[in-house]
Amino acid sequence: MPAKSKAQQKAAGAALAAKRGDMRKSDLKGASRDMAESMTEKELTDLASTKRKGKPEHVGGR
């Protein structure tokens, strides 16, 4: 599943780094912390590998 925004892609990258042990999970905040707990490494890889070109910085949903 591709990321819908640059922010979502960046959060997935941070969560993936924590899941792989490259950074501490305690350093994660917000969406990246939730992603690290609820998604598999494969799902995070798919989200984080999305190209950023043409994506909005944020997608409004609230």
Features:
single chain; about 60 residues; mainly alpha; 3 helices; about 50% helix
Overall description:
With 62 residues, the protein is mainly α. The chain has a domain at 6-48. The protein has helices at residues 6-20, 30-38, 41-48. Helix 1 crosses helix 2. The radius of gyration is 11 Å and the shape is globular. 23% of the residues are buried.
Biggest sheet descriptor: none
Supply Rg: 11 Å
Shape: globular
Mean pLDDT: 90
| Quaternary | single chain
Helical amount among residues, as a percent range? Answer: 40-55%
> What portion of residues belong to β-strands?
under 5%
Q: Count the DSSP helices.
A: 3
| Distance between the amino and carboxyl termini | 21 Å
- Low-pLDDT residue intervals, each spanning 5 or more residues: none
The SS-based structural class is: mainly alpha
Extended strand count? 0
Give the helices and strands as they follow along the chain. HHH
